[in-house]
Design a protein that fits this description.
By secondary structure, the chain is mainly α. The protein is built from nine helices and five strands. Strands 1-4-5 form a three-stranded parallel beta sheet. The chain has a two-stranded parallel sheet with strand order 2-3. Helix 2 (about 30-35) crosses helix 3 and helix 6 (about 115-130) crosses helix 7. Bound molecules: adenosine-5'-diphosphate. Adenosine-5'-diphosphate (ADP) binds near residues 28, 32, 54, 55 and 83.
Length: about 190
């Protein structure tokens, strides 16, 4: 599992793990954005909350992750990215994995200072616009601050949940991308 605040670099590193280790990236944020793009009822339900930087319901994300995890490409493992985000989600995940004789092997927590997260989000907006794209509706400065608040209130407590299970390893998420990738590889190799 990759863990950390919005903009910590979870998605970037999950994509690298997907390519280099054939571990599918299970990003609930991406799945929800796909549902919105597809115009499904579920997408419509989630859009308002996501645009505001609020969490969607545990029930919805637990449902979509369960469906995705049961696809054959996850048989040899996967990387959870942006899930779980609440204690009930973490409990549901543990139960889902236990029912399949699987478990979370390791939680890699990417640490990044808030000021850096804010400037990364600003940068992401600028780059998207420069490339002719449309920035994410939840990447405005105010919404990002709100997402950070939601992270500290609802999601950060999960670190203790996983520390109690002895699963947390911390990686400096402010190092250059290639160095973060190396640090994660070292953690995974040591864990085998
Ligand atoms: P970030 O770039 O902030 O890490 P994500 O792409 O992971 O964002 O998620 C974007 C939004 O999707 C969140 O702000 C939230 O509204 C919704 N979302 C994603 N994953 C979850 C989850 N596990 N539980 C609840 N809401 C989620």
């Amino acid at each position: 599992m990759l863990f950390g605040p919005p903009g910590a670099g979870k998605g970037t590193q999950a994509k690298i793990l997907q390519t280099e280790r054939s571990l599918p990236q299970l990003s609930t944020g991406d799945m929800l954005r796909e549902a919105i793009a597809a115009g499904s009822d579920l997408g419509k339900q989630c859009k308002v909350l996501m645009d505001r930087g609020e969490l969607v319901s545990d029930e919805i994300v637990v449902g979509i992750i369960g469906e995705r995890y049961d696809q054959p490409d996850c048989a040899n493992g996967a990387v959870f990215d942006g899930f779980p985000r609440t204690i009930p989600q973490a409990e549901a995940l543990d139960a889902m994995l236990a029912a399949r004789a699987k478990k979370i092997d390791i939680v890699i927590a990417l640490t990044v200072d808030d000021a850096v997260l804010v400037s990364r989000a600003e940068q992401r907006v600028k780059e998207t616009i420069a490339a002719g794209g449309k920035p994410r509706a939840d990447d405005t400065p105010d919404t990002l601050k709100h997402r950070l608040g939601v992270y500290y209130k609802n999601t950060a407590p999960l670190l203790d949940f996983y520390k109690k299970q002895g699963k947390v390893v911390t990686v400096d998420g402010m190092a250059p991308i290639a160095d973060v990738t190396k640090a994660i590889a070292a953690v995974l190799d040591a864990h085998r």
